[in-house]
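Reading a protein record of the kind used here takes only a little practice. Think of the row as the fold of the chain written in a discrete alphabet. A record is reproduced here so that you can trace the correspondence yourselves:
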Amino acid sequence: MPAASRKSRSTARGAADQAAGASATTGAGSTDQLATTAADRLRGEPADRLRGYYRMMQLIRRFEERAAEMYQRAKIGGYCHLNLGEEATIVGLMDAMAPQDYLFTTYREHGYAIARGIDPGRVMAELFGRTTGTSKGWGGSMHLFDTEVRLLGGYGIVGGQIPPATGAALAITYREAPGPDSPAVVCLVGDATTNIGAWHESLNLAGIWHLPIVYVIINNQLGMGTPVEKASAEPDLYKRGCAYRIPGVRVDGNDAIACREALRDALRKAREDRAPSIVETVSYRLRGHSVVDPARYRSKEEAQRLLALDPVAAFRKRLIELGVLTEEDAARLDAEVDAEVDAAVEFADNSPHPSPAELFAHAYAQPVPNMPRALPGDPLLPVE
């Protein structure tokens, strides 16, 4: 590998390691200092909450592993992107959000849907394309949607969620006065999304109009197979709003509490001050970009290094060391999670497929002229 490539990879890895244990990139510290900071945060949390965080992280992990299995068994069609390695980020971010907040996500959203409160069975049923799914089987893995919990997508197009999320924030300014109970918008994007035009156009409008929105960059170090520093001239992605005077912070994506506190603070500013901002979470994607990606762009050594940073295993270990969990407690929670995921798969597998007669049922919210209604092979005109 050329020296420049080695240096750029080292720089990106250093940024991720620097984020570990710190609530923002306000300065660097030693590894021991950062670990101590993360441990101190854990000690200040109620034990029940920490146990709940572990259970949710494990639920997301087991759900995604079973989703990969079901994809290989051809129970799931289309594309399928997993949150493996992102569990701590998900748990922290979703706990920071209030029920009145709106969430727009990328196509890697299964865990966010579950942590936001959607039953895992309904999520798995959507992956299976069944009528009991969150989008009645029409959306699949990349298009989860549930207005009850204000999850407004799952978007299959990279960056497709940014303009509608920004528009939702604009709508809030017309409907709600600023205040601690006012809703705000959380828009999740991947690291590579910060290079597209819609990102810059939307942030410019958010800055001009002072919109109540937080753009959360899920930086898992790779845009598909391309390292961040090879795709972005400014690899410190939390700085990507500076041209629009939108501040940002970077946090350790493997630290659920750091993620929660960063987003909670950003949401407070969005609600009360109508101040848009950026939160960048840094973690590692433990598998390929999608279920079918073998991730050959990673060396065996790099893959092993990432597995050693597994956020679920690390969180379990820390809770046991702190006395929040015993080995028996953890095993019991793991068994509960396994049973819940088994039930989700069974529910999905036993749910009905959509009827071909309903193919166009949700093409439009209300009837419009010339809307599609014919199946392939149907006559264009009535047959006398």
User: Anything to note?
Assistant: Residues 96 and 265 are 9 Å apart (CA to CA). The chain is about 45% helix and 10% strand. The beta strands are 102-104, 185-190, 213-219, 222-223, 226-227, 248-252, 277-282. The two ends are 72 Å apart (CA to CA).
